[in-house]
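Students often ask why we bother encoding 3D structure as a string. The short answer is that it lets us treat folding as translation between two languages. Here is a chain of 459 residues written in the first language.
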Amino acid sequence: MIRAYPRAPSVAPGDVLTLHVATDSPHRCFRAAFYRWADGPQLMHRSGWLPGKDAPAGRPDQDWDWPAYAFAIPQSWPSGVYIAALEEPGRKRSFELACDSGAALFVVRASRTRGSARARGLLYKLPIATYHAYNDSGGGCFYHEPPRSLEPPGARVSLRRPGGGIGGPVWGAPDHYDAGSPRQTFAHWDARFIRWLARNGYAAEFCTDLDVHDNPDLLRDYRLLVSAGHDEYWSEPMRDGVERFVEGGGNLALFAANVCWWRIHLVDGGAAMVCHQGGPQGARDHWWPASGAGRPEDALSGVSYRHGGGWWDGPRETGGYIVQHPGHWVFAGTGLKEGDRLGRRTWPPLPGYECDGAPLDGFEGGKRAVLSRRARSHGTPPGYALLAAAPLGSGWQELPPRNGDAAGAGVHAAALGLFERNGTVFSSGSTDWAQVLACARDRRVEQITRNVLNRLNCT
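And here it is in the second language, the structure alphabet:
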């Protein structure tokens, strides 16, 4: 078996990518084929044969410190998500996006150019922290045998081990609707959304969440920041940077859910991360409660997982999003009417598998969603517009606790909506939006996506 990981998950054009590689092949050599992912894989370069070495697996919370190999990234390579596919003699290997060995993911950032603020358009952010939270390389992650950290307190995982989007084992239940790739990998959500962008003529540049942590000011060059799928783990500098971006007039489109649910702390110079998810005094790194960060994620995205819910195993029960305001520009060209149900019969059905919502008091007549009188106290931003809502029944596998309510209590629903704070923040409220978008089985989902991107990416 051959496995690898990047020392850092992003690199600038013209810089050097360091890959750490271990192989137990009797040939003891390998080469790296570099693919850029857009409308499918594009082969950019294949290295010569390199001498390989075997190395033992490490612990999930430690830098594995495998043999290092340097690869110069050409200045001409465009910004994008890249896969280094590792090849061994005598083993013909086709490109495989959903694999648990033999590949490593990294991002080539955009070249820095001088210009006016917002001169660039769309920036797509990959959730590397969330990938690694579920990465089970070394036999542990935040959800399986989590290694402990004393300072800061919590569970600790290394970012320098195989996995992190591709090339490692992943913890979690398989997707009933899409068993071809594990959740919490690049293939499952992000690759689909990026492919749709490319096929529909949207030019994007790319970064990781760790880039935002290290340099939040990079966002100032862009009009629109996009995230899709599952974007669960955020550090305070990540969140601070994105909120400043919006307050400064930048736009944020979240075709994602469970957004900013856990706070992380990057340690060891960014080589590992820690998150405190439970204990006698509760979870110190939940964003919303006073016993945690005391900073509701609603203020960032307009919605929160605690008002929505999760369904991980088997087919889920959902009636789709009930349209509330069909005249809004988000729904232009869809033909949707008030009370229509969006995503009810898609594959997978919307919303899910995890979804974010706004606090509701109920649904009048089973259709008209009523925003809670306590919405502001939950963190809902002033002026939040609830455009569609999908009620979650009692059969959902998690309906989280929240301010004053135990788990399962009150009304839980996924919410599609937006608010303005100099810039505009849109949220679809569903992790699985990208899957529905990619399969092109509901043109209304595609039209909504175009409306949001076109409106928020305009000058």
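Translate back mentally: Residues 2-105 form a domain with the Immunoglobulin-like fold (CATH 2.60.40). Keep this in mind for the problem set.
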